[in-house]
Amino acid sequence: MNIKKHFLFLSISILACGWGTPWLFPKVLFANEETVVAMIDGETITLSEIVQRLEESLGSILLEDQRPETLRKKMLHGLVSQLLIGRFLEKDGVDLGPLEVQSAIKHLQDRLGGSPEQLSEYLKKQGLSETRLRWRLSWELGWPRYLKREITSERMQTYFAEHAHEFDGTEWELAQVVLALPEAVEEEKQKAVLESAENLRKLILQEELTFAEAARLYSIAPSRTDGGKIGAVGVAGPLPQPLLDAARSLQLGEVSQPIRTEFGVHLLKLLAIQPGKQTWEGSRDQLFDRLSQQTFQRISAREWATLAEQGKLHLFEERLSFIP
């Protein structure tokens, strides 16, 4: 198992969570270097740090359909979660030796020239306290070890058995009917399209017309010429996620409830299932990634809730729209 590769991927996913660029607001609010957007057990995260991390990870790439505060919020939540886990790992001590973090700090100090003053100056420039540094080092040193200890072969095998179709290469042969649903139409018209899809489903179930006939008569998708058939689809797509989720829940021959996506309102029919042949051993990397993400979410949510209940975690998200 390539723990380092996974850890690098997870770290990047936490930092590279969107594109950011300055935005014009009717009311411009300015921040200074000390504008605090979060406090964790007495330690602060500033807006300038969030902006700097976004710029370092992705540069000034323009994404016109997202406001910077949305991107900054994603970055902030990711950083808070990472620090909470680092804090937990330092306190837990199972995956870190008693002097290991201190040794890493000493190594950093030696690289900077050897004096405590040089280390202090470095931390000041980075906007870090020694506690923040300890949490970060605890994350970097302890998290890969924690995952290796927690995600055993037995756990991966059990998860695979419970979610085999998501890993073994199973494919679902599907047909669809797609009704047009323009985004700009009024809510009443959108409801009318959904009702039309429900009525069409009833006609199919009552055998007043076949699914293929419904596709040819009413679908706006190119697949209508072939009775709505879209071929075999695996868990990786290329359908929108709501359709993939619905496909996995269908029984053979079943017609789904109406499903709304950006392309319209869909009815799906499961025509056949092609069983996959991949074993759990062949899916180790994917299983490790999935369980690592779940472990990250579980621990960060637990630590988040604990500190919030103790009054030691505060987020000031309204300040994320300030201009640094």
Name the shape in a single word: elongated
User: What portion of the residues fall into strands of 2 or more residues?
Assistant: 5-15%
Terminal residue distance: 42 Å
Tell me the domain tally. 2
Q: Your description of this structure?
A:
By secondary structure, the chain is of the alpha+beta class. The chain is built from eleven helices and seven strands. Strand 1 (36-40) and strand 2 (43-46) form a beta hairpin. The protein is elongated. Residues 3-31 have low confidence and may be disordered.
Please specify the SSE layout and strand pairing.
Elements: H1 3-15, E1 36-40, E2 43-46, H2 47-58, H3 68-92, H4 100-112, H5 116-126, H6 130-150, H7 153-162, E3 171-179, H8 187-205, H9 211-218, E4 229-233, H10 241-249, E5 259-261, E6 264-274, H11 284-309, E7 313-315
Antiparallel strand pairs: 1-2, 1-7, 3-4, 3-6, 5-6
Helix pairs in contact: 1-6, 2-3, 3-6, 3-11, 4-6, 7-11
How would you summarize what this structure contains?
The protein is α+β, with helices and mostly antiparallel strands and about 325 residues long.
Short key terms for the protein model shown above:
alpha+beta; three-stranded antiparallel beta sheet; 12% strand; four-stranded antiparallel beta sheet; 324 residues; Chitinase A, domain 3; disordered N terminus; 11 helices; 52% helix
